[in-house]
Amino acid sequence: MCEGERPFLQPRDWVAGLSLLILCQLAGEVLVLAARLMLPSLLFPGPILGLLLLLVVLKVLGERAQAVVGVGNALLGILTLLFVPSAVGIMQQGELIRDWGLPLLLAVVVSTVMTLLVTVGAFIGTERLLARKRS
């Protein structure tokens, strides 16, 4: 098989790959919910833990993970379909967006700029602290 060429997946491969993806997300959700019973203030998202679990599983499986890779590539290929419902919602709420669009746009732009400034500031501050420790 050439580099970049996608392997042909059998139906059982699709089921196995998709099942592994869903099971990892489910395991992440369950583990976070169980941890919240002991630590109610825990704010770690379950899907992120599931993604980390998937990373471990993929590392363990190695080359045998082709089914998961194939399903992941296929899901990424149709990712734009997930945005269609939001686009329809925007079209249905046209009047509301017309009335509140400018304040919403302003809030998004201002919050994005503030986030970038805080992130850059935190990076520069951390870099200065590390530079002082190194010298």
Could you give a short account of the major beta sheet? none
Give the N-terminus to C-terminus distance in angstroms: 51 Å
What series of H and E elements makes up the topology? HHHHH
**Strand tally, please?**
0
Structural class: mainly alpha
**Rg (C-alpha, Å):** 22 Å
Average pLDDT for all residues = 87
Give me the number of helical elements.
Answer: 5
Helix content: over 70%
Q: What general form does the structure show?
A: extended
The percentage of residues in β strands lies in under 5%
Q: Ranges with pLDDT <50 over ≥5 residues?
A: none
Topology record:
Layout: H1 11-38, H2 46-61, H3 66-77, H4 84-92, H5 94-134
Helix pairs in contact: 1-2, 1-3
Describe the structure.
- The chain is an all-alpha fold.
- The protein contains 5 helices and no strands.
- The longest helix is centred in the last third of the chain and has 41 residues, at 94-134.
- 6% of the residues are buried.
- The mean pLDDT is 87.
